[in-house]
Design a protein that fits this description.
10 helices; mainly alpha; transcription cis-regulatory region binding (chains A, B); transcription (chains A, B); homodimer
């Protein structure tokens, strides 16, 4: 293990402590001292790796973003756009304990960011990045004729991110076992609005059956 | 002024202090003592009107809900469903200082509720009520042929509330002057997905012009 590896490992250990603190008591539970105590290290060690409480919070949120990105890289992007999007969305929906923790940290971060300029710009940049990633997939779906002609890829990307964010906020005030059943059909219903059904794409036989002449 | 009026006025004064505290420092800024100080009354007076910190927070959030409901009652429900919905949505989008405060309080409340069962059920009940109110309007839109046949009123109501919640979260990390420009086109784009255009409803001449035979 190199010195760089060791430093990365220590930072990750401290970030883990920050995430647990936010999950338990929100952003106010985070202080340099509380992180030192939770991680079982000295205050000086926390100060060696992180400048301030704000940096701790931003790095903790960045860690969650990088984690989702890492898992997103394992999603195959070759299939139908709708399946690709669904697989990406499923990486984030809070349907188990770990994902719920991440979503709670995101929500606490979002609430805190509304009054702290240093967090605000980071939160806005993450949203922008996600909209762009969705738009890229939806542009491809538009070119391949999967997207409804009524949907503009850029507008649809913004709408999709909004739906996901809103559903996550709403699902977090439900008991965890109820969340999957709340989220899945609502995500599908929104994708139904954006994507043509196989029948509309001209592949189905429904139209023929319904013709009575 | 009756004794009842005076009590209502005092409660409202205390709730105003709670809202300002949440807006300035989030839920952790609220305590019985902090509210007494901010409102310029004794701790005993706060305790006379409110049992606990949780009750203060729930009542502050309920106050915002009642305020929106009150303004919603002034919206005429007779026009086209899309205009009615748009007018209701505009009561909530954080495009000025007062509405931004209300939205920040909602977001702080939502984040706090994820780990506090006493707040959780209230937050979930408010969401459910809003979905039902939207569904009622969308059912009428479906019957009158305004809604796209692809949209189910109940699913569309849930999607609409999710879009609004998500857009509000995202807009709160933008500078206030940017918010209206961020929100309005995205709300319209989502309503475009749900409602038929005048042309699709059979009123437009576009189809005739495009026929070449």
């Amino acid at each position: 293990m190199t010195a760089g590896d060791r430093a990365a490992e220590r930072r990750a250990h401290l970030i883990g402590a920050v995430l647990d603190l936010i999950d338990g008591g929100g952003i106010p539970a985070v202080s340099m001292r509380a992180v030192a105590t939770a991680a079982g290290v000295s205050l000086a060690q926390v100060q060696y790796y992180f400048r301030s409480k704000d940096q701790l919070i931003v790095e903790a949120f960045r860690h969650i973003c990088r984690d989702v990105e890492g898992r997103a890289a394992a999603v195959g992007f070759d299939g139908p756009a709708r399946s690709v999007l669904r697989a990406l969305i499923d990486l984030w929906l809070p349907v188990d304990e770990r994902l719920s923790r991440d979503a709670r940290v995101w929500l606490a971060f979002s609430a805190e960011a509304t009054t702290r300029p240093s967090l605000m710009s980071f939160a806005a940049a993450v949203d922008e990045e996600l909209r762009e990633a969705f738009a890229q997939i939806l542009r491809r779906a538009s070119e391949s004729g999967e997207l409804s002609p009524a949907a503009d890829p850029v507008a649809a990307a913004a709408g999709l991110l909004a739906v996901i964010d809103g559903l996550v906020v709403q699902s977090l005030v439900l008991d965890e076992p109820e969340r999957a059943g709340f989220l899945a059909p609502r995500v599908e219903a929104h994708l139904d609005l954006l994507f043509l059904s196989s029948r509309e794409k001209g592949g189905g036989q429904g139209g023929v059956i319904e013709e009575r002449t």
